[in-house]
Amino acid sequence: MTETITTRLLILGGGPGGYVAAIRAGQLGIDTVLVEGDRLGGTCLIRGCIPSKALIHVASKFEGMAEAAHGAKDGISLSAAPVLDMAKTVAWKETVVDKLNSGVTALLKRAKTRVVAGWGRFSDAKTCHVETKDGPVVIKAEHVILAAGSIATALPHIPFGGDVISSTEALALSELPKRLAVIGAGYIGLELGSAFRKFGCEVTVVEAQDRILPLYDDALTKPVKAWLDKAGVTLHLSAKATGWDKGELVVDKGGETLRIPADKLLVTVGRRPRTEGWGLQEMGVDMDGAFVRVNDKMQTSMSGVYAIGDLVGEPMLEHKAAAQAHVAVEVIAGQNRRFDPATIAAVCFTEPEIVSAGLLPKEAEAAGHDPVSAIFPFQANGRALSMEAGDTGGFVRVVARKSDHRVVGLQAVGAHVSELSGEFAMSIEMGARLEDFAGTIHVHPTLSEAVHEAALRALGHAIHI
Amino acid sequence: MGRFVFKLPDLGEGTAEAEIVAWHVKIGDMVAEDAPLVDMLTDKATVEMTSPVAGKVIEIAGAPGEMAAVGGAIAVFEVEGSGNAADEASPKAQPKPVAEVVQAPPPVVEKAEAPPPAPQPTPPRQPVETVAHAIPDRAPGEKPLASPAVRRRAEDLGVKLGHVAGTGPAGRITHEDLDAFIAGARSGPAASAPTLARRTAVEEVKVIGMRRAIARQMQESKRRIPHFAYVEEVDMTELEDLRVHLNATKRADQPKLTMLPFMMRALVRVLPAYPQINARFDDEAGVVHRYAGVHIGIATQTSNGLIVPVVRHAETLDVWAAAAEVARVAEIARSGKGSKDDLSGSTITLTSLGPLGGIATTPVINHPEVAIIGPNKIVDRPVVRHGQIAVRKMMNLSSSFDHRVVDGYDAAEFIQRVKAMLEHPATLFMD
């Protein structure tokens, strides 16, 4: 017997776009059904941001202990090298994921969202069929929000399977590979590659472009590159992975063929929107390349159908999806909303971390802002020195318009700088000027003082440099 | 060459349409960016719209006196570059495509349509307040700079920030800028019937322009609000003595005191006990907003009609400061240069006709407020005092209240306390 549900709002996908939309809809009194075939939380929570940060945390802790086994200069020494039980690490990581997953479940319950567990498939724009364990369900909705997310891109000549893994599998390995090869020196590849290096794996990263982390400029990536070199990560730039042959990654580097033996091959060459397998083609929505085309109200070309998150374009970031979820639901509720952020800040949990909001200096220049930029190194920041983070080459950089001192970009590289992202994004959204930073007392001793000093330096009167 | 369609932006809260008052351009004119284009009248004020682009006017929509819908095209320009017509609604589809319109010579239309019956020539009906909305100094395509809170509020108001000039650092659009932009729709809420005579006759006079705005506001007030009036007699002798004394001994830099500052003082002393009276009643939402601050509207007659500028936070002003502030806002109202802050947001209104004050008035509440106080004229009257006939300076205090949210008992008690304050002036200054 097929159950038919009629609802005002149907959300496809329980990731950070979908579940935030459902909670917001609950707050606005919109009758909502959410369809999710996997656990609630989406890529970010189940197999992305959160689990990778857990792994990176353990890796850093392990690296510190390994250092102590050699007698670290801060005075800690261990009599024996630390031992890693990867299965336990992964199990611990799962407890973090479980906690967040049950948190989302509870939030949705409180929002009175009906969650239908199963993979949905649309037969038309407003009708979704779900095979649940209790039988088929048909959901008819007045409004639909598509939040199907994205999946890891595979290389056609090196498909996933066996020892060729995506980030999802890399976060669930029960034992450490002795040798790990990574294709792609974007943020996912470097975050995971660096973590595995800290665990003691031999890590080789192959990148087709001539640089790592192509979203950032050389100044920002230099400290990361320096760490990779120092940590002994082998990096092949301008190198093309051509095949996977019996435990060896075959690479073409400027005509020369390299064979890199590896126990696991991690492919992180990007992600693509999940547009297949759930009936998108039946919905009559226009596409924009690989993505679903939406306007700034998150409306697709089909009336009453909205799309958010990774499905609608770059950047594929949790916080962008959540922000778009707010817009879509509030538009459905009849409010006048637009998705029009001044910036979507991004962080990169490499060693050290990178954070960027707004425009890089060269982007500001290209945009005609006639920018001034200034850097303050963490080497001159007491807090950084006190946590052994002063000599990584890290810094804060502020980019402002010469004409009116409006800050159009803020970047940093260094330990824990991801936590500066809030100040960065907020100040750009508020249209802050250098004087606003200068006039804000930044707490001592914190890394944020470097933000203050960078602004002062742009104004020509930094104190500590 | 491209076509640029200029749509009438939302001019403020819920404004669906605005009246075309006068065109500053005609078809074929070359206009510079920011040059005056057309004067539009919303509920409460005239807004001068400036040209968003430089170019040649090729279409205008609507003659003076006609209404134009918000969001509808009001002018089309031929501009350098591609214009915006590609992604805008076709101007042909707009209700008033132009041809016959241009013929109408703007300045005389009002007179022609509304010959005033008065014997002497009336001055042309000039807009009481003209808020010039300079199109902001921003490169084409550059995003307006505003905090998320301002952006959200603009969305709620339906205001496109691209039309709003930013006065903040680096051209940032502040809440105040947004207020100023929509101030056109909020300038001078017209408040009370200035005379005892009620307008009962309907004459064949076309009510347009500022008069239409006043009429609408009055009608709203009277239609929505079940008024009740209350008049009490106040012995002003002691207060009048004090006032005369203060004026005789004041410093040169201090303003001359009228009764109003004392009246304001009495209100701010008494109102905290009657929060339902210092309020604005959003009757559509069914919410009474009770204000801690006392923002007193001062009904002011100007050459252009009734305006109610606002003395904000009267509770912070002593009598001298209140006198100065009343003088300032009245001057602003008369000169037609008020900002939104000066002209809206009052929580209670004082309407005093001074020497024309009469014996009693039934003032019309300045919607959405819930009370209006109208002191009448002070006269020497014989009264019985301690068993003797004495000549005292007596004044009636008229008032009207919104009976939906103010009970008669409370209103009477409120006025009695105001009376007590005024009759014992020392209590105005005692804690």
Automatic annotation (TrEMBL), chain A:
Going by the UniProt record, its keywords in alphabetical order are: Disulfide bond, FAD, Flavoprotein, NAD, Oxidoreductase, Redox-active center
FAD/NAD(P)-binding domain: from which residue to which, for each copy?
8-325
Enzyme class, UniProt record, top EC level: oxidoreductase
Q: Pinpoint the Pyridine nucleotide-disulphide oxidoreductase dimerisation domain residues.
A: 344-455
Looking at the Swiss-Prot or TrEMBL record, what is one Pfam family this protein matches?
A: Pyr_redox_dim
What EC identifiers does the entry list? 1.8.1.4
The terms under GO molecular function for this entry are: dihydrolipoyl dehydrogenase (NADH) activity
Which cofactors are required for activity?
FAD
Catalytic function, reaction form: N(6)-[(R)-dihydrolipoyl]-L-lysyl-[protein] + NAD(+) = N(6)-[(R)-lipoyl]-L-lysyl-[protein] + NADH + H(+)
The record's listing under InterPro entries reads: Class-I_Pyr_Nuc-Dis_Oxidored, FAD/NAD-bd_sf, FAD/NAD-binding_dom, FAD/NAD-linked_Rdtase_dimer_sf, Lipoamide_DH, Pyr_nuc-diS_OxRdtase, Pyr_nucl-diS_OxRdtase_dimer, Pyr_OxRdtase_I_AS
Cofactor comment text: Binds 1 FAD per subunit.
Miscellaneous note, as given in the UniProt record, is:
The active site is a redox-active disulfide bond.
The entry's family comment says: Belongs to the class-I pyridine nucleotide-disulfide oxidoreductase family.
Question: What name does the UniProt record give this protein?
Answer: Dihydrolipoyl dehydrogenase
- The scientific name of the source species is Caulobacter ginsengisoli
Automatic annotation (TrEMBL), chain B:
* Positions of region (Disordered): 109-128
Enzyme's top EC category: transferase
The molecular function GO annotations come to:
dihydrolipoamide branched chain acyltransferase activity
Q: Where is the Peripheral subunit-binding (PSBD) domain?
A: 145-182
Carries keyword Transferase?
yes
Q: Which InterPro entries does the record match to this protein?
A: 2-oxoacid_DH_actylTfrase, 2-oxoacid_DH_E2_comp, Biotin_lipoyl, CAT-like_dom_sf, E3-bd_dom_sf, PSBD, Single_hybrid_motif
**Which cofactors are reported in the record for this sequence?**
(R)-lipoate
Q: Which UniProt keywords apply?
A: Acyltransferase, Lipoyl, Transferase
Residues in Lipoyl-binding domain copies? 3-78
Supply the PROSITE patterns for this chain. BIOTINYL_LIPOYL (PS50968), PSBD (PS51826)
Q: Name the Pfam families for this protein.
A: 2-oxoacid_dh (PF00198), Biotin_lipoyl (PF00364), E3_binding (PF02817)
Question: Could you tell me where the Pro residues compositional bias lies?
Answer: 109-126
What are the boundaries of the signal sequence?
A: none
**CDD domains from the entry?**
lipoyl_domain
- Coiled coil region boundaries: none
Q: Which domain of life is it from?
A: Bacteria
EC number(s) stated in the UniProt entry for this protein: 2.3.1.-
State if Ribosomal protein is listed as a keyword. no
Family note = Belongs to the 2-oxoacid dehydrogenase family.
> Quaternary arrangement and interactors, per the entry?
Forms a 24-polypeptide structural core with octahedral symmetry.
Q: Name it.
A: Dihydrolipoamide acetyltransferase component of pyruvate dehydrogenase complex
Which species? Caulobacter ginsengisoli
